[in-house]
């Protein structure tokens, strides 16, 4: 509910992820999703490293990295 993809969702809340794979590679995405504060201490995005399984994290990172 915090992001938009392909015109669904609210890009004003957390940004549009439709083409995020053009901007960032899988390693960056994994770090950002795991603990965004390590990349941007001022971010409002919560860390998901402790709440996602490795399988879930792999699926999300793979999906977003392919968004070009």
Give the arrangement of secondary structure elements:
Elements: E1 4-5, E2 8-9, H1 11-14, H2 20-23, H3 26-34, H4 54-65
Antiparallel strand pairs: 1-2
Detailed description of the structure:
The structure is a single chain. The chain is globular and about 30 Å long. The mean pLDDT is 96. The protein is built from four helices and two strands. It has helices at 11-14, 20-23, 26-34, 54-65, and strands at residues 4-5, 8-9. Helix 3 (26-34) packs across helix 4 (54-65). Helix content is 43%, strand content 6%.
Condensed summary:
The protein is mainly alpha-helical and 68 residues long. It is 43% helix and 6% strand.
Q: What shape does the CA trace take?
A: globular
Ranges where pLDDT stays below 50 over 5 or more residues in a row are: none
Q: Output the helix-strand order.
A: EEHHHH
Average pLDDT over all residues: 96
Measured by DSSP, the beta-strand proportion falls in 5-15%
Structural class per helix/strand content? mainly alpha
Tally the beta strands.
Answer: 2
- The helix fraction, in percent, is 40-55%
Number of distinct helices: 4
């Amino acid at each position: 509910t915090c992001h938009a993809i392909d015109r669904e969702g609210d890009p004003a809340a957390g940004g549009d992820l439709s083409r995020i794979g053009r901007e960032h590679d899988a390693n960056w995405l994994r770090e950002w999703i795991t603990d965004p504060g390590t990349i941007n201490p001022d971010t409002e995005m919560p860390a998901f490293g402790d709440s996602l399984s490795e399988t879930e994290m792999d699926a999300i990172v793979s999906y977003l990295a392919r968004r070009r």
